[in-house]
Amino acid sequence: MEENTESNDEVNNKISNKGRNIPNKVEEDNNDSNKKFIEENKRTSVKFTDSTNNIKKDNTPLNKTELPQKKAVPLEKKPFHEFVKKHLIPAIEKEFKQRGLEVEQITLKNTFRPIAEDKCWVINCVIKDTCNFWLSFEKEDISSSKSISLSKPNQKPSIIESFLIDEKRITLVLIISRILQRINGQKLLGVN
């Protein structure tokens, strides 16, 4: 039988030295794998872009066609006044012109709504020898509560009707089509 000649101090010393060597080995392994990863990526031909300075990782400038294109904001998401003045009013005029009618006057004002007499944003449109209509928005928002009033030329409106109350998504095309539908419902555009 062999006798264990190592003292407790020697055993403890070996254990503590082994513990020190393990982290060094792990660090070396991590460094080696990181170096391999970096080298592999250097060899690939994939070019990543840096949007902050428009330079590819290989230091060549981007062509303008390679820049990411921003999506255009939908008309209906534009600010209320911009949408009404630049898109809705011209579309109304164009629609009536295509039908052979003349828009004498069309305005957007923060004024009193016909019949209800509360203050809101009102588009007043006078169509020569046909009718007048008032499209009212409760707030500066095309999704807010809306109403419409109609009258024959040189008359005051006698009815106020809700407008697009069941629609979740209000669009330019929808507004135009419902204006025409209301006017046509009163047989003001001619034959149905």
**How is the quaternary structure best described?**
single chain
CA-atom Rg in angstroms: 37 Å
Shape: elongated
- For the biggest β-sheet, the strand order reads 3-4-5-6-7
Number of strand elements: 7
The run of helices and strands is HEEHEEEEEH
Q: Strand fraction band?
A: 15-25%
The portion of residues assigned to helices is 25-40%
Secondary structure class reads: alpha+beta
Number of helices: 3
Major β-sheet annotation? 5 strands, antiparallel
Give the termini separation.
Answer: 117 Å
Low-confidence segments: 19-26, 45-50
Average pLDDT, all residues: 77
Number of domains: 2
Please explain how this structure is put together:
- A hairpin with an 8-residue loop joins strand 5 and strand 6 (146-151).
- The N and C termini lie far apart (117 Å).
- The protein has helices at residues 8-43, 80-98, 172-185, and strands at 49-50, 55-56, 103-112, 119-127, 131-137, 146-151, 160-162.
- The chain has 192 residues and is α+β, with helices and mostly antiparallel strands.
- 36% of the residues lie in helices and 20% in strands.
- It folds into two domains: 9-66; 75-185.
- The chain has a five-stranded antiparallel sheet, with helices on one face. It has a two-stranded antiparallel ribbon with strand order 1-2.
